[in-house]
Design brief:
Blueprint: E1 2-4, H1 63-70, E2 81-84, E3 88-94, H2 106-123, H3 125-139, E4 142-149, E5 152-155, E6 161-162, E7 166-167, H4 169-180, H5 187-195, H6 202-222
Parallel strand pairs: 1-5, 3-4
Antiparallel strand pairs: 2-3, 4-5, 6-7
Length: 226
Amino acid sequence: MVRNEGGAGGGDEPGPRGGRRRGHQPAGSGHPRGGGRRSPADGRDFGRPGGWQQADLPPAGDAPAWFCRRLPSEWFVGPAEVSVDREEIVVTGELPPVTGATTGGDTDDETAAQGRISRFREQTREERMAIAAEAQARYGRKVAWGARIGSTSMLFTHLAAPVMTRLRQPERQVLDTLVDAGVARSRSEALAWAVKLVGRHTDEWLAHLRAAMSEVDKLRAQGPDL
């Protein structure tokens, strides 16, 4: 069972506001246009004044390794799962199983797991916020957190980005694959194209497309320097 606690703009950690024009400030903010760096806690500092623009968004290919080194070893059983797209980094880890609880069935087991995950959320809140601020300054993306015990999983804060409708990370990754491969010129166009293929071996086709893109990247790397 997967539960999502909190939505975009709420929850534990500070987050970026993608797509803002450089130097633009909300009305009444008290800051001059382009007015220098801000604290990561206010959600507008991602390594440069005005926030990161889409064209110069920092690469995040090393994010899984960075979180593996940065997260306390006692938090999760095994390495955390880290998934990345253009707006968000989602970090999810397996917690130790609940011990010492008297359970009388699946419902009680799930309730105990939910309680343990909620306790983890509260106990690690300040440290997760600090790690999220570091990651956001490094990668220019919001950090969302989640935890699971067995089949029970919770996402604490999870971004829903507007792309004609509000889509979460797995759906955005599908659109980004189509745009990156040149199948579509934008997420909106990719969404319209994808709707036509609903129910028609989409996952298999995208897997082949990603494999082909990987081969293209390898060939580019082997080419002569200009």
